[in-house]
Write a structure and sequence with these properties.
Elements (H helix, E strand, L loop, with lengths): L18 H74 L4 H11 L4 E21 L4 E20 L10 H9 L1 H6 E13 L2 E12 L8
Antiparallel strand pairs: 1-2, 2-4, 3-4
């Protein structure tokens, strides 16, 4: 049987190939497969990271006592450092009186002796400029300040030159760099008197301590 298609060519139905549909379907399936692979890989990576995190947490828990001990030691070290700094600051402002007693003995004259060595506070007045906020001018202000004073009392007998003078001792103290660094002669008084029927010169010397110092052995 012979079939003749009398329709014009442009009106005849086009026979389409299934190849584009097959390629589209294959591409879709491939994309889904790739997404699935990436998804599974991400899940695997997350699971691995979770295992590592759990292992680190477990290890941290095991080491927690060590960490606490380390933190405690660190805090103790910081406190000790602060204490050492405080001690150094205090020590730098302290006077080692055993050393100063040695200096007093070293500087003493052969014909003198100490009757009393005393350290006490004595009031002084100081005048300095202070800016007055109300008048916007500097004004002289006098204030009372307590300072430590080293008081030396004793006697001097006539020396080889026949003089009972304490001046050579005060000159020694002024010229001695170690002693004069800490002490400055403020007041000196003298009185001729008898000591066990021997003519002597009684003296009293007051030295201002240049820096604050607590008594130390």
């Amino acid at each position: 049987m012979i079939t003749v298609n009398l329709l014009p060519y442009e009106l005849r139905p086009i026979k389409r190939t299934p190849l584009p549909y097959i390629l589209s379907g294959a591409t879709f399936i491939l994309a889904v497969a790739v997404i699935a692979i990436v998804f599974l890989k991400n899940i695997s990576d997350i699971a691995g990271a979770t295992r590592t995190l759990n292992e680190h947490k477990a290890e941290l828990n095991r080491l927690q006592p060590v960490v606490e001990d380390y933190n405690a030691i660190t805090q103790k070290k910081l406190k000790l450092a602060e204490q050492v700094q405080t001690i150094n600051e205090i020590a730098s402002d302290r006077i080692i009186w055993s050393r100063q007693l040695y200096n007093l003995n070293r500087l003493a004259l052969e014909n003198m002796w100490y009757d009393e060595i005393d350290v006490s506070l004595k009031p002084f007045t100081e005048t300095h400029l202070v800016f007055n906020e109300r008048t916007k001018q500097e004004e002289m202000v006098t204030e009372r300040i307590d300072r430590q004073v080293l008081t030396l009392s004793g006697y001097v007998v006539p020396g080889k030159d026949g003089q009972a003078s304490v001046s050579p001792f005060t000159l020694r103290t002024e010229k001695d760099s170690e002693f004069s660094e800490l002490f400055q002669l403020e007041l000196s008084t003298f009185k001729d008197t008898l000591f066990e029927e021997v003519g002597v010169r009684e003296f009293k010397l007051e030295y201002v301590i240049r820096r604050g110092g607590s008594e130390d052995d």
